[in-house]
Design brief:
CATH class of the domain at 14-33 and 41-79: Mainly Beta
Strand order of the largest sheet: 1-2-3-4
Strand content: 25-35%
Radius of gyration: 24 Å
Structural class: mainly beta
CATH architecture of the domain at 14-33 and 41-79: Roll
Number of strands: 4
């Protein structure tokens, strides 16, 4: 039997878990146990922030919620790692120490 390399095409049928994270919060167990219907839990994300899209727990993109018929959907707005990197800030000019030449 001869092995023919196929690149990564054979991985395309592997099942992965895609999750969209709306936000997080830290709570004491007593507060979790006191939750009931109509309880509101405030999350750490603002309403205008993008949601995290993760595959098997790894961030791959960010997106926004859309309505798709009678279901929620997600529009991908940016892919992880595709944001333009900021240039490093220039170091402040160093003042010469006493006795050093200017």
């Amino acid at each position: 039997m001869t092995f023919q390399p196929r690149g990564f095409d054979f991985l395309k049928d592997v099942d992965v878990r895609l999750t969209v994270e709306l936000g997080r919060t830290a709570m004491k167990l007593r507060d979790v146990l006191s939750l009931s219907e109509e309880s509101v839990v405030t999350l750490d994300r603002m309403t205008d922030e993008l949601l995290d899209v993760m595959v098997n727990g790894k961030l791959i993109a960010r997106g926004e919620v859309v309505a798709q018929g009678d279901r929620f959907g997600l529009r991908i707005v940016e892919l992880a790692g595709s944001e333009p990197e900021e240039a490093p800030a220039a170091a402040p000019a160093k003042k010469p120490a006493r006795g050093d030449a200017a």
